[in-house]
Amino acid sequence: FYKKFKIKYPKFHDFLSSLNEEANCKNLRSEKESEIDFNKDSTTFSGSQYCKPCPICGVECDSNKCTHRDINHPKCQKANKYTPTRGAKETDIKVLSSGEKREDITKKLKDFCDTSDSSKLTEEWKCYYEKQNNEACILKNKNKSADQPKEIQKTFYDFFYYWVAHVLKDSESWRTELSKCLKYNKKQCMNKCKRNCKCYEQWVELKKKEWEKIKEHYEKQDGLPSGGITNAYGDPSETERIKKMLEKKNTEEKDDDTTHRSTIIDELLKHELEDAKKCVLNNPKDDCPEEDSDSDDEVEEEDELPSAPNPCSGDPSGSSTTHRSMVKTVAREMHRKAHQEAKGRIGGHISKLKGDISKGKFRNGVKGSKLKTVCEITKDYSNRNTRESDGPCYGKNKERFEIGKEWSYWDETNKKKHPQAYMPQRREHMCTSNLQYLETNDGPLKGNGNDEKLVNHSFLGDVLLSANFEAKNIKD
Q1: How many structural domains does the chain have?
Q2: Ranges of Acidic residues compositional bias (predicted)?
Q3: What is the domain extent for residue 23?
Q4: Whole-angstrom Cα distance, residue 184 to residue 74?
Q5: Within this chain, do residues 140 and 43 fall inside the same structural domain, yes or no?
Q6: Both ends of the chain: CA-CA distance in Å?
Q7: Which neighbouring-strand residues pair with 153?
Q8: Positive or negative: CA dihedral 274, 276, 278, 281
Q9: pTM over 0.85
Q10: What are the pLDDT digits (tens) for 268-309?
Q11: CA–CA separation, 438 vs 428, rounded Å?
């Protein structure tokens, strides 16, 4: 066999090229798949929709077919699965859990702020060490489904990176959520900033405790390399921005014991805590007076507008005269005027226009608190008269995107009475929830007595529903 094989394929690449001529390889060429060429490992062995990934635990086969093994199948258990012994050095590390996706992280952090008992949100890891290659960090899987293992095991190395990665992701989420609160403006009071900044501070304190336990377990290992945990496991690339702070601090230290010097994570958490405390200090009020409160519609101030060469100065170099970047200036001024005009219409209290969908009430007893994200809004979150309207786009012109359609008057028979109502097809037929069919005589939109704020919260449902349907209509 070998002699014949060598005659037909004298070189290794000749054999690989022959594989390219197989029917499946030749026919499998589309926008979703890379061209299969066994001489190019970067495309041939990349992710594919045509080939399913190998099952984690293999398959069980009979004469007819093969089926995936369940993760709890005896053959799926690792041969080198760690089992703690009496002599193992043990460290309990409670970790505040957070999701992998951005929306999961945001929800978990909100849950953390809303509860007085964070223990319900923690993962109880137990890390064991006996000797090198005989150690593990174990998490009992309490709320597991049928296809999940009874416990999760990671090496301490993997657990360390798992923890660091989540701290960095969570930190980024905090800074995104609190961007306005962290940007101090003594002229403005911002609602809920004090509460959220205080929660941010508590989160950092909790992460500091977790980090101390991780370092404690690291110290239990034998043959520690010099330089401490950061050098042992490498510097996470995401913390590069902290590195200069660390280097400056460490050059100032006279202690020769490098094992106990500050790590990058120490500096990161110290920096986070300083920002959190400053955030709390700069936002002393949680509920702001309406006239002082900041609105999402307010334009954020910038310390300094960037300068750019003036191409109209007459100087070829453009250096003799510079001008402020005017686009942002004009936009800011237009935004400010629109905001002031809106405040003037409603007696100077812009907050009267605000609504919170989670506090809204809708037909048939539906509550806004059931809505996880506004992007998932459905027709259930509406107060329309269902006998008159089937939804935001009901009865709207299907030809509103037809090129060449002329503008028209909203009321063709009374043009003189409504001359301002002259608009293009798309605007005339926007998915406006057919506002004339909203139930305003009873229910949450009536607005009697103490229900005035409920009107805003509930009306927001139809506003968001309109935006959602309009976007889908444009996409379709």
Answers
A1: 3
A2: 288-305
A3: 2-53
A4: 58
A5: no
A6: 59
A7: 138
A8: negative
A9: no
A10: 888 889 999 998 888 887 776 654 554 444 434 444 444 445
A11: 18
